[in-house]
Amino acid sequence: MKTVETIEQLRSVRAALAALAAPVGFVPTMGFLHAGHLSLVKLAQQDCASVVVSIFVNPTQFGPSEDLEAYPRDIPKDLKLLEDAGVDLVWLPTPEVIYPPGFQTWVEVEQVSQPLEGARRPGHFRGVATVVAKLFNAVGAEKAYFGQKDAQQVAVIKQMVRDLNMPVEIGVGAIIREPDGLAMSSRNSYLSAEERRAATVLYRALQAAEVAYAAGERDAAAIRSLMEATIQAEPLAELQYVSCADRHTLEELERIEDGALLSMAVFVGKTRLIDNLVIGAE
Ligand code: AMP
Pick from 7, 23, 28, 122: CA 20 to 30 A from residue 140's CA? Predict the structure, then answer.
């Protein structure tokens, strides 16, 4: 496995990239890797002859009061996991490489960035779309893989790829969960033991909604109330939002007619967790 630390080096190993058997699959990450990330690597390996992973904690997708400095990092462990997984190339760009002095070019995906996470994290998806566009440009992979864990991110990236005619195909990996249902996340490492137990409330709320849907509930407000009530019953959890939205436009629904994306953001202690579930999709 090769590791590359700057874009110049990435260019200088063009030969190495060119030597990678096509098609190349690309998995962008912020590191502190877990089974969710590795599932995307596996997906890429199933479809592609070679796999490239990037590790970059992208400062522009963090708000001023968010956890950029505290974001967990363990590069040696990440490299070992990727090596063991059989990844061909890992790129670890520095912020100076991605955002050179005088940087002023941004990618804004308009409507689909507005609701849900976008409404609570102003500028987040501008940072995500910009860095992903830059990573795509540099790596030049035929396929790139993202997790359904960040459902709105998937929608934003797919829209960007369509709108900018980017020659890359997007693959989406299912949410990988702990045995008790908590969606895997690098941020779970912030949770105390007590908070970790409380954090299962997100999945419990999604499951309660799924059960109600299976029993015939189609009123989106009733589904949202049920999720809210489940979260509010957990003393360590503080709800930021719940949503029952159209899977494609991410607009809030009144009635569920053709499936729905259920999603939420919840603070457990100081840690902000997100989760989602698609119901009723064919
Ligand atoms: P991150 O390092 O948090 O930026 O995540 C990198 C990629 O892994 C993104 O496409 C995420 O959606 C995906 N991912 C993170 N957690 C999970 C999970 N629990 N299951 C599946 N994919 C995930």
Answer: 122
Angle ∠(75,76,80) on CA atoms, nearest 5: 115
What is the pLDDT confidence band of residue 5, given thresholds at 50, 70 and 90?
Answer: confident
Active site residue 248: no
Strand-pair category, 50-55 with 89-91: parallel
Mutational test site, ligand 1, from 29, 56, 61, 71, max ligand atoms within 8 Å of CB: 29
Q: Span 33-50, mean pLDDT?
A: 98
Tell me which amino acid residue 205 is.
A
Question: What's the 37 CA to ligand 1 centre distance in angstroms?
Answer: 5
* Cβ atoms 181, 201 nearer than 8 A: no
Measured from the CB, is residue 150 less than 6 Å from ligand 1? Answer: yes
Q: Summarize pLDDT for 188-236 with one digit per residue, the tens.
A: 999 999 999 999 999 999 999 999 999 999 999 999 999 999 999 999 9
Give 3-state DSSP helix, strand, coil % of the chain, rounded to 5. Answer: 45, 20, 35
Q: Is the CB of 178 under 6 A from ligand 1?
A: no
Hey, which residues does 271 pair with through a beta bridge?
A: 268
Residue 102 CA to ligand 1 centre (angstroms): 30
Residue 224 near ligand 1, beta carbon < 6 Å? no
Q: What is the pTM of this model?
A: 0.97
Q: Which of 40, 85, 43, 78 is nearest to 57 (CA)?
A: 78
Is residue 250 within 8 A of residue 154, CB to CB? The reply is no
| Separation of CA 18 and ligand 1 centre (Å) | 27
For ligand 1, say whether the CB of 118 is within 6 Å of any of its atoms. Answer: no
